[in-house]
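Hi,

Apologies if this is the wrong queue. I'm a grad student, and the batch job for PRTRC system protein F from Caballeronia jiangsuensis produced an output file that my downstream script rejects. I'm not sure whether the problem is my script or the file. Here is the sequence I used:
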Amino acid sequence: MDYYLPSVVRPQLCPDDMDVYRWHAKTRRYLPQRALGVAALRRLQRFTAGRTRRICAELEKLSLMLQRVGNRDLFGCEYRPRCAYASATLTVENDTRVGEVLDSHYEYLASAGDGTTYLGFTPLASAPDAIRKQYADWSQGLSILGQLDRVIACLAA
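Support response: The file is valid. Your script probably expects a header line. Output copied below for reference.
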């Protein structure tokens, strides 16, 4: 049983140096780490070459796209079931143990009937203006997903 405890498996799924949250002792809670801003990414591009420069360029594009959107819900999911996974599951190590943990997670959700592979369900708009806005939002959301795919491809190369 200890084999599957989150505290035991976590270092393989998400090592501390890849965590996006850090414990802040003063406020006694987890806070997100600061991300590199667009200006910092541009500076890095000037002083680096090759793969690092490409990653910075793709991250800059993604950051700008996300800034334009803000906190808007581009896909308008009104019902969100318990999703087994969102758009992707990224792991640091690709070994049998990580595979077993992920397989067990998906198997549990599938056999218990609690989970689905759908992120959510979106009602279709019916008024002409609402349809145009919905399609524009979807287009922007898919563009962001495409840019995220390019960032992941650069990291994986």
